[in-house]
Amino acid sequence: MLPEFGWDPVILGPASISIVMNLDYQIKYSDIPILIDNKALRNLAARFGNELSKRSSIVDELPEELEIGWRDYRNMNLISAHMISLFVASFTRETEWDMSNYRTWLASSKPRFVYPWLIPIVPKESDIDSIISSISEARDGVLFDFEGEEPSRMVGEKSSCCVLVKARGKFEHEHRERLRKIIKDRFPTEDKRIIFIRIPCLGGEPGGVLVLLNNKAIGNKILSIAKEAEESWDGYRAEYEKWGLKQEEFKQSLINVVNHFS
Amino acid sequence: MDFSDLESIALRLEDDEEKLRQVEAELAWVKEELKQKPKRDEKEARFAKLAGYQWKDESDLIRRAKALEEKREALINDIKANNQSFIEGFSSKDLTVPLEPKPIVESGTFFFSFRNGVTYPRTVRVISKIIGLSLPIVLEPVTISERGVKVVEEDQYLAKEKVVEAFEGLQKTLALKLKQPVMRRL
Q: Which domain holds residue B143?
């Protein structure tokens, strides 16, 4: 997760270094890093505050003395939990054929990082028509902050996406086309680079669509964070080394991250 | 741009850095002398008066300090320019690293020496200094030294891929230093 931070160099430096080290860890040990921006989560949590407050959260069950600090993150946590549950369900509920679809996407498009687009942000519906129509009511959100840039302008030639659809009933060709059009309007992507994975929706549970997007927009943001991290490291190296982070370790992580996101 | 061009830039860079160290050491001595000058001048003048002759300040400390400052400034500018040329050259898309195409195989490692047995000590030293890694430069599983590149890998083709990745990583990270800082919004 990319944390939000502002002008304060006391926050900015360590935050950038932490992002670089965490990304390096993800690059080494995951299929692909999935990036969520805290700032986007905070905005969405504020926008959907009323609806999210009606949903149950583990934070509500915490003893009062532990609640402090967690309360502010309750709604943000619900959004990311919804996203993660869709992603996990794509593994735990898929047939072997569909699993290979996800692997096909990894193998053919070679995504280097993804960021999620969640539809709808607060799950209610379980049939695909209602899920898709929630986009027309702007109940969706990309969990990444473009900092004022127009996403469609930042799409690279090799952009691709994997669409996880958890819905009850049939998922017809027409539904695929509608979803494909919605994605292409915002993130111009070739048809062959959009892969759908269907996840069964059990009982009365609500469904949703999770679009894992991969385009160069993130690379630009990560590189500026990496630059800030390096400048911060060079300025406060002795201080960071005191806390056990070694120069070689940081610099090698930096090279990995820069190489990966360039 | 290839490694021999970089080696010439690195030679100038290291030469200028050595000169800068000498100039700074001399400048520090001259400045210390200048600090002591008022006291010494006063003593010389009092002695000259007592001994009955006209004392004249013949030290050229101020002129020397000024000349050294100018030299220091010029060296710093040269170092900056050479540093910039080195980074631009190394991160250029046309960079060629003259490695032998056929590696020497030694118990699970492949060693690609630089062609014709040439070594590039200064280039490797400058890269390690700019990037902040110690020598030899280790980017698992690749180790870059003045004699060539060693890769711990089972397969020759994978080894070549790792060499390319390691150099691309170094190039992109060095190129980052040429970018203007971005001011982040709240």
A: 104-176
Mean pLDDT to the nearest integer, A231-243: 87
On the question of pLDDT at A136 being above 50, the answer is yes
User: Any chain A CB within 8 A of the CB of B93?
Assistant: no
Nearest-CA distance A58 → chain B (Å):
30
Half-sphere exposure of B77 (CA within 13 A, CB side): 6
- Mark yes or no for CB contact A223/B176 under 8 Å: yes
pLDDT of residue A120: 94
B89 neighbors B1 (Cβ within 8 angstroms): yes
Rounded to the nearest integer, the mean pLDDT of chain A is 85
Count of CB atoms within 10 A of residue B162's CB? 20
CB atoms closer than 10 angstroms to residue B157: 8
Residue A141 within any structural domain of the chain: yes
Report the complex ipTM. Answer: 0.73
> pLDDT confidence of A182, banded at 50, 70, 90?
very high
Write out pLDDT tens, residues B134-149: 889 998 889 999 999 9
Q: How many CB pairs under 8 A join A and B?
A: 61
Q: Is residue A4 part of a domain?
A: no
CA A8 from centroid of its chain's CA atoms: 25
Of A7, A227, A248, the CB nearest to B186: A7
Distance between CA B18 and CA B16 in Å, rounded?
A: 5
What is the H or E stretch that residue A39 is in?
Answer: helix A38-47
Cα distance between residue B75 and residue B72, in whole Å: 5
Kindly report the CA angle at A46 between A45 and A52, in degrees rounded to 5?
Answer: 50
Q: Are residues B112 and B72 in the same domain?
A: no
Residues of chain B with confidence (pLDDT) below 50: 185-186
Q: Is residue A118 one of the residues assigned to a domain?
A: yes
The answer to whether B176 contacts A258, with C-beta atoms less than 8 Å apart, is yes
Identify the weakest region by mean pLDDT among A104-113, A220-229, B164-173.
A104-113
**3-state class (DSSP) for residue B119:** coil
Whether B110 contacts B159, CB under 8 Å? yes
Look up residue A22 and give its amino acid: N
How large is the angle between the packed helices A247-261 and A217-242, nearest 10 degrees?
180
Separation in Å, CA B135 to CA A240, B91, B123, B144 = 21, 20, 12, 8
Residues of B in contact with A234 (CB under 8 A): 132
Residue of A nearest to B136 (CA): A248
- Under DSSP, is residue A34 helix (H, G, I), strand (E, B) or coil? strand
Cβ pair B184:A259 closer than 8 A: no
Would you say residue B150 lies in a domain?
Answer: yes
Q: Are residues B10 and B45 both part of a single domain?
A: yes
